[in-house]
Amino acid sequence: MATPLVRQAAEIHNRSRGDQPIIAEYLELYQQNEVDQILLPEQTQCLAVKTFLHMCNVKFHLKMRSNAEQMSPSKGLPFIKMGPQIISEFEPIVEHLSLKGVSLSGELSGSQRALLKAYMSLTVNRLHLAELYITWCDKLTVEEITKIRYGSPYSWPLTRILPWLKQQEVGRYLEAQGWNNKTIDQVYTEVDMCCKALSDKLEDQYYFFLDRPTELDALVFAHLYNLLTTELTSAKLADIVKKYDNLMRFCERIRQRYFLEGEDGEDG
Amino acid sequence: MGTVYAKEPVINEDAMSNTTDSEDPTEGPGTSPESRIQHIFHGDIKVKVERVHIEGLGRTKEDVILKHVSQLFKAETFKDVIFTSGVVKQELEELDMFQGVGVLIDTSKGPKARQDGLDVTVIVKESRRITGNAHTSVGNNEGSLVLGAKCPNLLGRGEHLTAEYSRGTRHSVGYNATFTTPLQGDIGKRFTATVFRTSGDFLSSSYKEIDHGTLLEVMLPSFLGQHSFKWEGNWRDISCLSRTASFAVREMAGHSLKSSIKHVFTRDTRNERIYPTKGYLLQISQELAGNRLGGDVQFLKGEAEIQLNRKLLKDCVVSCSLQAGLMKPLNYTETLINDRFFIGGPTSVRGFNFRGLGPHADGDAVGGEAYWAAGLHLFTPLPFMPGRGGLGDLIRTHVFVNAGNLCNLNLAEEQTVHQHLERLRDNFRWSYGAGIILRLGRIARFELNYVIPKTALHSDSINAGLQFGVGVSFL
């Protein structure tokens, strides 16, 4: 449909950025071992990126490495490898792909985009911190699940030392965010408030913005799905999410659309 | 040999003139006009050490000293006594427990003293309980500043406890605490236990390594050479230095635990380490990591080094050295980059950058599992400077040829030894050049060479032309 002139102009525009105009044949997504190592916060981020890539119709290969966290340039997971380039963490990945011309929110207006960013901060801040808290600060979860899983690829005494060091690091991060003094009930309340805000925004729509998914949908789906399905020491988190019907339907909808036929559909 | 004091009473001139070449050492008391006993000493006179006194012992336990001084009782002639005193003094000083050792030889006193009896007094001055020091040390291509504190002779039998903090020019920071003790009172046998933390940047491979570990070592001498048995438990943390590190190195980032035992046999007959002019060095080592010992990494590694030095006419020395190493990962694992071999550099195969010879991935040296390196040098004194005394003694010129190869042999595959050797011979690199070396005491050696690498692979990192190196051991 585009005239040859417009097509040529688009090619010149893409080439002048110095990048290739199309995504490479495949990209590789690196994460920790799904079955016995990965923890709730990382799993959420990985699922968010996978959902986003499915939504953009970008093919990728999933690679699991026990040292994925140390391999990542920012020490955050997941990271993707496109040829020689490596980009880590959800938001930089979304931004990098949009530079390559792959974006879900390209058609949003300015104010909608600002709203999108605001809600992304909401979910990133509240839900992510809640997941970090529950994984690393709730004593029962830490002793029974987290330390064992985090130390599983190593031999003694690293199985003890490394989870302890990571716990100190996460504790410092939560302290900087003002979260380490909260009790577990306060954290559950935070999660509840966050879900309520999301539920109010979603109402009866299919997706958060317009009638097609954006990166916010990917991120919210990842958080909610993992809160519902990850095995923790208590089912409190799943119960909180279950209170909101439209969020439940939203999760089911996205799961059915993107993960039932996909080759990387299974998440634990 | 130090100072040996020997006291003798006044003797008159008659007796003196008779002693110089007398066959009969003792004149006997009867012949002398003096009524008291005269003691006439020269080398072959038969004496017997009756008593040995030891003065100055504080916290040092007696049995340590007794082991060494007891040999004095075996001396038969006066020459023996003096010689043995010198040996005892040297042995006690080697224990590193004393600030100074002195030996005093006197005639026996007292009513039961024999005519030819001697009393020997060993005077020791113990070191302070704790000493501090700051010094620089030179490693290969790196210098560092070391601050340390030492408790010598901690429990009285020659044990030492040392703690050190060091900072190197390659951003390496390290500290360690070491406890060492001689075994069975024998200075040749030592047991050492160390707890350490070291770190270092390896720019040529774009990674940084931080090690925490413990080391237990036993050193035993034997009539063939020195044996050293070591167990090491080491937690290594590798991280990439920059975003542009190659993916092959990035894949190795992370934590690993090495638990290994190592045996090193050394036979060193060279006259000195920095610039040997005669003698040879033979060193063979084997290391086994993992398996039943625990840890993540599992491999078997062997290395050997041989160096021969020979003096030619006048002041010229020809030196030839050969190093080789082979490692095999066990139980279907793969070797990690920080366990592999690396060669190349001003102290290894010259003409290449540090770690520049061997397999590379995207510009990062990744090391190999088998290597050999050889060097042939001819050292001559400076042509225009006199060889004796002053600066001329410290500087030498040398002409050399270096060669080497570093590769992976894939020992798992079915190949004959002949095929493996061919693999090592294929694509080997060599270089030649000349330069001057400057000896820094017996501690280190500076080299400034002009090198021409004659063959190199595309992926090697070469340094043609001037190359400067400082180190302790060179190829």
TrEMBL record, chain A:
Thioredoxin-like fold domain: residues covered: 45-139
Domain Metaxin glutathione S-transferase: 192-254
A GO-annotated cellular component: SAM complex
Entry-linked SUPFAM superfamilies: GST C-terminal domain-like (SSF47616)
Alphabetized Pfam families for the sequence: GST_C_6 (PF17171), GST_N_4 (PF17172)
Database matches in InterPro entries: Glutathione-S-Trfase_C_sf, Glutathione_S-Trfase, Metaxin_GST, Mito_Protein_Transport_Metaxin, Thioredoxin-like_fold
GO terms classed as biological process: mitochondrion organization
Domain of life: Eukaryota
Family annotation (PANTHER family): METAXIN RELATED, METAXIN-2
Designated name of the protein: Metaxin-2
UniProtKB/TrEMBL annotation, chain B:
GO cellular component: mitochondrial outer membrane
Region (Disordered) location: 1-36
Pfam families found in the cross-reference section: Omp85
Residues covered by the Bacterial surface antigen (D15) domain: 153-474
Stored Gene3D superfamilies: membrane protein fhac: a member of the omp85/tpsb transporter family (2.40.160.50)
Keyword terms of this UniProt record: Membrane, Mitochondrion, Mitochondrion outer membrane, Transmembrane, Transmembrane beta strand
Family: Belongs to the SAM50/omp85 family.
PANTHER family reported in the protein's UniProt record: SORTING AND ASSEMBLY MACHINERY COMPONENT 50 HOMOLOG (PTHR12815:SF18), SORTING AND ASSEMBLY MACHINERY SAMM50 PROTEIN FAMILY MEMBER (PTHR12815)
Name of the protein in question: Bacterial surface antigen (D15) domain-containing protein
